[in-house]
Prior knowledge:
Elements: H1 3-22, E1 27-32, H2 37-53, E2 56-61, H3 66-78, E3 81-86, H4 95-103, E4 107-111, E5 122-125, H5 128-146, E6 150-157, H6 163-177, E7 182-190, H7 194-207, E8 213-216, H8 219-231, E9 239-243, H9 247-254, E10 260-265, H10 268-284, E11 291-293, E12 297-300, H11 304-315
Parallel strand pairs: 1-2, 1-3, 3-4, 4-5, 5-11, 6-7, 6-8, 8-9, 9-10
Antiparallel strand pairs: 10-12
Amino acid sequence: MSFIKRALMALGFAFALAGSVSGQETVIGGMVVQQDQYNRGIQLGFEASAAKGGITLLQGNSDSKLEKESELVDTFIARGAKAIVLTPLNSEASVPALRRAAEAGVKVVLYGARLNADFPVSFIGTSHENIGRFSGQAAAEFISRELGGKANVALLGFRSQFQQPSDDRTNGFLERAKDGNEITVVSTQEAWLAEQAVTVTTDMLSAHPEIQIIYAANEGGTVGAVQAVRAAGRQGRVYVFGTDGSEQLATFLLDGDKVLIATTAQQPFEVGKKAMDTAQAAIRGDVVEKTYDVAPFVLSRSGRVAVEEYLAKIKQ
């Protein structure tokens, strides 16, 4: 083979290599913490944004386990992710794995919970205080109107899973529920999965028959509280105010037994989409805000039309 021909072949190979490098796919890792309707909404938001931006999306579920979260972060790095989008499980313990990502040049975008670190490029979420306040305002109006301004309240939180969001939601609820009312908290327990919440709520109702209002700080707790009240035959005497929105919770609000009175829904699709949009912008070098807020909204038994519209949207 002549020198000129070998040179031309080498030059062609160089151009081909350059083209393949410049045309490399952009990979982003997206992580959720468990399987439920809220997290599925987050994933759908991820997918919509990635499809629009031509992004290769790697998805993972930490199952609320720190070691799995760390493994997924390392997997995303090894797979060449330019950004990682996730809810960190712990503001301190999640830092080392994500710092490794940041030091490798990966953009870290958070949603739902923050880190005690300054390297994340942005946070997308909904004020946990407002999530609680919106349900608390609905409870305040109900207690004033239906219970004469006084109520014995039980609380279901998820502090061992996410301490600060649980506390913020619960405190926000109590702040507003106490507005103009006399509130006595008679029991505070942990339960974030529906099956667990059924057992915990059943025990609370047995130990404290004076309970009139239950506030659950997440979806699973809300579902379980409603089911426990029904199983105990306490409809019309115990009322639930909850958190998050789902097909099941919307159906509860439309039921005639009047157990679930109101819940404050987030917009997981919008959160997931905004988080993935922000990750893409950060990769491009665009200026992004440090914080983006996605407002919650109340679904109430008294707003049947809005609940029906929400239910139709979820089913779609």
